[in-house]
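User: Round two. Same drill as before: sequence, then structure, for each protein.

Assistant: Same drill it is. First protein:
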Amino acid sequence: MAMLKRTERSRKLILDAADEAFRELGFANTSMEEIATRAGLTRKTVYNLFSSKDEIAWWLIARVEAGDEAYRVRIEANEDVRVLLEKVFLDSAGWCLANPSLARLALAPTERPSLEPPTDRPSFQRLVRDILVLGQRQGVIRTDDDPNFMSLVLLGVYGQAMLTALAGGPFSENDVKHIIRIVIEGIGEKSLPSLT
């Protein structure tokens, strides 16, 4: 039991140290040695708990994604979907701009996302999907399409906008609202016939 507590304490020290180093130095300029030094641990201990700097980064991203309880409460309270989507994406944009190194990894993953959100961990994709399901129940999100697919479309548009912002492009609260409006309302004129 004491060993488990020490391991978890060491993991937390490593994650906190890496988070600080990535923010200050950037992901590419942070070494495992730097993380170990900041955590007050040996490099061997860091490698015993994490196989690489990439793994540490993914744990940090997962730690952020696990913090969705407040949004889940708002989903349960049947909050207006447009307001909730704005809040979720504004909060995410704030995190991305404050953590550019990790945000680039999260926004441009090496693996193609699957239609279904991962089942083994919290994910931003699942949160967005669940908000869209709420919107379907509220009658403001189309019900003739799969919410998993629609969440990937929304996340794709948002991800590209954030990558542009991280590359030095302009990005504001109004940009998030604009993205959500365009995705929800669509880009075509309402008088256009359906393609199906």
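Second protein:
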Amino acid sequence: MTDARTEQAPPVTLTPDVLVIGGGPAGLSAAAALAPRVAGDVLVLDREKEAGGIPRHSDHTGYGLRDLHRVLTGPAYARRLTETARRAGAVIRTNAMVTHWASGLAVDVTSPQGRFRVEPRAVVLATGARERPRTARRIPGDRPAGVYTTGQLQNAVHLHHQQVGERAVIVGGELVSWSAALTLREAGCSVAAMVSQYEHTESYGAFNLGGKVVLGVPVINRSRVVRVIGKPRVEGVEIEDVDTGRRQVLACDTVVFTGDWIPDNELVRAGDIALDPHTLGPVVDTALRTSRPGVFAAGNMLHPVDTADIAALDGRHVADQVVRWLATDSFPHSSPAVPLLAEKPLRWVSPSLLRPGDPAPPRGRLLLWTDEFMRVPRVTARQGGEVLSERRLAWPAAPGRVFRVPWSILRGISPHRGPVTLTVR
């Protein structure tokens, strides 16, 4: 006789046309674009208690310029995208964690209401990216309180209204680093210094100038944090000049590690989906297909990390490709895929595959990442040992932010001559 207490009812099964995993700008924008165009449901799952992604707790202005053509605060932007997706007909379920793939495109989900299974016809992965914490950066020293990533800091200050310290050091000089500086100012915490390993601070010049002048944040370039000091709370950090090796201690009671992003790629790995060894996100073509038929990807899990509005535009782009998949239910296995490779000082290129007949990538741009600063970069595309195209661009290539290259640089490539290599000088 079966003990009724040990019996487990099979999980409820949902069968939407499209499952979007991740309720940030990319996922919500994809859902808003898809819901009016498909016959069945579009279901968005997000593990947080509210949809909206990182902007939800980034309480400063600057969001929505490219996708909404207006400037909003992060929380207002997150609410706008969530409301737009719901009005379009998308179903959004929060506090829902996708735990693993079942079979085909099916996934199992855990929520406070219990377990359920989703069996869609197409999946969009839009799980975004996260900053590497101190432990992942292998920075030695004490283990005191007062150490944050930007996301942890903003969550504590804007969502939970917690107190932080009085004097902080920001590690990194990316766009998100200035976002951390704004949050610290709102929390009443001064910034002792922003520490960047690069000669030119990674963020855009306008942000660097504004941050220094308006916020009064001193920037120490060509330096890195080598030790955290203090018990039970941070008392200081030791920094090292990367050129001379000279070290000094900066007194502070708060440290914020910013940038150095990594995609939330657990479902990519669990789904046996091809992983790009450089971005650490899934390998995709310009239609944003992954190697698993019916599974697409969009946003900052592909190119960590870009602005929220660019991620949102990725979502709109992938919606067109998902509609095409639902109409044809076919995957271009027979089409030869041309790999796009990045040569040093470039670290990666996204998308990294090109198939004949596929659309241009989102916004007609290839996204690249460089480890060297070049004020007037010249980009070269080579295939089979020959130069296909060369382009001098009027905007700089800089570490710590995405470098955008017009798609037209790949005109004339052959599907039969092997990989295309991109480099910049």
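Confidence is low (pLDDT under 50) at residues 1-6.

User: Perfect.
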